[in-house]
Input
Amino acid sequence: MPDVIVTERPRPGVLLVRLDRPDALNAMNAQLVESLHDVLADVRHDSETRAIVVTGSGRAFCAGIDLRGYGAPPGAQEGEGRAQAGMRVQQHIAALVEAFRGARPPVIAAINGAAAGGGMALALMADVRIMSETASMHASFINRGQSSCDIGVSWLLPRMIGFARAAEIMLTGRPVDAAECERVGLVSRVVPAERIVDEAIDVAEDIARNSPFGVWMTKEVMWSNLEVPSLRAAMDLENRTQILAAMTRDHREAVLSFLEKRPAVYRNH
Output
């Protein structure tokens, strides 16, 4: 069976992950989703991988679930009921949200083309989104007779762009082009199509220059503070994390390298 995920390490500390089903517009099937789980599990606690770039091969980022057939996810059993089998598939895909969130390296989505349905959800799971000027996002679940509240979208999208904008996008399923995505803050920048992967790798490299612990704690606390009930609780978490970071040898190296006007050499100590 051919690989449906291709990985490479274009620069120190940077992992490039390509969804590689171009003939199917990189649609999600059991093999692609499980392969993505495997890649993220491999780097979940990896301090050598400092940032991850996820993109698609060909003209699409990801067209969502493969409507021609998903295949059997891990643990599938013959004779399961329709609801049981459907829930196994649903949870297999939805578990990617925690896999993205739980990986220490920040994930940058290089949205090279259409990101529809589950593909849009995949982009929203990332910590940073960079978009090709020819790409678009679609909450297309609703255009297929389902709810647009799927794979974390109903939690993530309103927090990113506000309830009113999120509601319109999710209720209509209309395409949202790159210019609008940038205007409403859904992506951090829009770049020419031929620059999309290089631009994302540049951002990944900028992240990789910082201390592993500092990046890990920044990602973890930012996501956690989307869920805390008060500013006080958020600051309490920040205070404790900052003291932990200040106790690392890498913090001392950062201060010393600044004073000595040289690049820092971090060892995750």
The beta strands are 5-11, 14-19, 51-56, 60-62, 107-111, 114-116, 128-132, 136-138, 175-177, 189-191. The CA atoms of residues 27 and 67 lie 8 Å apart. The radius of gyration is 19 Å.
